[in-house]
Amino acid sequence: MNQHIQDKYPPGSRPRIHYIPYLIFVSYIVSFIGAFTTVELLHRRQSGNTWRSWVQLGACSVSFGLVAIWCMHFVGNRAIVLGDGENEIQLYYNATFTAVSAILPIVVIFLGLLAADRFYKNNKHTAIRHVALLICGICAGAAVTEMHYLGNKGTTNYHLDNDIKFIVGAASIAVVDCVIAFGLFFHWSGHWMDNIWRRLLVACFLAVAVSGMHWTAAAGTAYEITGYHTGSGQARNVNLIIATCLCLSACMVCFAMGFLKQVHKRKLRDRAEQVVLAVAMFDSDGKLLVTPAGLMPCQTITRQFHQRTFDEDFDIRHPVFQWLFRVSRNWSGTIDLIPSMREHLLHTGFLQPGTPVIGGANRVSIGAEEDSKSSYSAIFREMFCVSAQDIARSMEVRLQDLGHLYENVETTGTLLNARTLFLNAQGKPILAADIAGQTDLEAGLANPIIFGRGQMLVLTRKVGAFEASRLQNIGFRFASMEQIGDHLARSLQISRDDLDRLIGRLQTSCVRDALIPRKGTYLASFLLQPSPVLQGLDVIVQRLLPDRLPMVKLANDELTQREVKLLSTFNGCTLEDCLMRIDRHSGSVTGDDIFLDKFRNKIIELFQQVPEPALRQAYFSAQQLDIAHGVTGHNDPLQSTIFAFCGIKEIYNQTLQSPTLRCVPLSFLRANLRTYTGSPDHALLAHKTHKEFGSLHSTTMDPGSPTSRKSPKWTTLFRTSTVASSSSATVVTDSSSEKGLVNLAPSFDGMATAAVASHPFGGIMVSQDVVISEDREGKGGVDLELRDWGVRSVAGVADAEQVTMVDRLMGITTGFRDLQGSKLLGKDGRR
């Protein structure tokens, strides 16, 4: 030991102190890096009681306790120079205290963050939330304070004398700044304000809490020499080197999270251009279920739905969508097929192994090389079912409880297209959205300018308090649109107004009344309108109730025979004729007249719901129809019946008179009527689905079948075994469960198609297409009429689904039109 050092700095003396300025700045940067890493990890973690959530919370604690506090402390202490900088009298530390000072703050911060996570995020009581936030801030401030003094306690050659006033001041700075920082973070994260500048501000406050506490405490600390260091002076740099390595590790974590953030944003943009399946669940307060990232649980079905023709759109008119719509209302008929569907998709290369569950996009697009229309349809339907099960597993719910498919295909990725500039006739730039708003819908263009880049199918459901609490415990959140609206709109690349309207429609569909009333007699409007894109017939319905006909209740129970007989006298009369005939009988007080007055009031009420001029000329049908087909007797719980006014609008008038009305395809309304609870068509569709996909999978998994997507496997997907016979020909059956969703054979007399006894799956189904055309040769202008262009027989073995109320009303409407046409021919003698 150098005697000069002992004489200059005798034991018990207090050497003068000075600081290295740039190391003070570096210590703050180190603290900021650790704090920012902590904020980023907190921002991306999943709430709940899962092991992953605990690991992520532990990582946040390690980042803040080890990097932001521990590293900053030793980097900052390296800036303290005692005496004239002699190595023998500088600060050196005990390894045990150093290790304990690194572990203890991690534990304390973990407890504080755990309290905030459990009691702040998922609690509706303001007082409890504030207390949880205060506990988190106190724990964080206490971790900073105890680490500082415990680390200083490990000094081997000094006794540290701390002023109590500086201890209180330093601790106060740490606690107050931590409360402010975590308060801002949890407030902003609760509103999903995904802005990096806000997270940087929170990190700055945390770094100020650590650095401010450290240097305030250092200012009130006096160093008394108790010994001298005899080793190498490089020993004092060990903690500095460790701190530097940990800081660099934190930087690498930040860069990795930034890279993953960009990848995630790119996936969101790509997803807005794909066909995805999303889940919209609402709690009792109307809040939407979202992931910790503020997005709806979703899964990519395929990158693009391949349209084979220019006039083929994937919408509610498409048979594939109607199949998905019906299956989602009876998952029990398909759930046992999903494992084989997944195996088939993996076998054919359309599903890649290791696909992420939430937000996965590892799907292969169904391209044009799949030239078999039935195989193309089957692959897409398989992807839908597999995606739905993946989401159900991630949410830990049964597939049957995931929800029902919403009655529309939502368009995403329209935001950029809506801002696209076009040139008008004068050469001035205008927005595409403005062109769309000025386009005349009667011209037959459904989506004239704005085409969305992606499509979204949505499963909707309303959950109770217990289910909502369970979902929150596994990491999901329920949020209002004020909290997540802007963020969710950006992810879908749609405008905020469009998103608000969409969420409103989804929420309304969850609380909608039953599709078919249990009992009562109703008066309905069955008003047809030719599709503006000439793709069949549409039915005018109420905008908020697109799954049923507009109707008013005529009686709470069944009508008496006398009342039914009175209504039969109006059969074939128009709505105006019915009102005129009732007015001529008004004035008396008999039971018949009282019923007729009620009938007139209900007609007026129905016209108020559907204020269409064509309804005035609609014909009344006195045939009493069951709303729910398949009713076997009066013991059936669904005994409601209807009488209807049937009519068809002119093709040149596509405008509806009321904003509360809309048009839905006739085929979609028919599919809706096959989805009520207890419908016999559920079992028939499940039987067809098993028959179709069972044969597809057994053929595909044949050891002799090829496995490459480029090989001609689609020529063997629907192979059927043939038996050579010299006296009979083999009929190749079409077992697609998608068939029959549209253009079913309407047996209007109520007779079911007879089954072929020799085949276990049913009989031969024959369908008749009714085509609407314009008679341009008539002299009285454009006249819309129904023409039978012959019977087109589709031979195939299929189960015979019963005719629905819509099928019967369609037959009645056709009959009235034919009868009116015959009367007109009889008057003028011309064909």
Automatic annotation (TrEMBL):
Source organism, top-level taxon: Eukaryota
Transmembrane stretches, start-end: 20-42, 54-75, 95-115, 127-144, 164-188, 200-218, 238-260
Pfam families the UniProt entry points to:
MHYT (PF03707)
Entry coiled-coil feature ranges? none
Keyword NADP carried by entry: no
Which residue numbers delimit the MHYT domain? Answer: 19-224
Q: Which InterPro entries match?
A: MHYT_dom
**Keywords on record:** Membrane, Transmembrane, Transmembrane helix
Identify the PANTHER family for this entry: DOMAIN SIGNALLING PROTEIN, PUTATIVE (AFU_ORTHOLOGUE AFUA_5G11310)-RELATED
What is the protein's given name? MHYT domain-containing protein
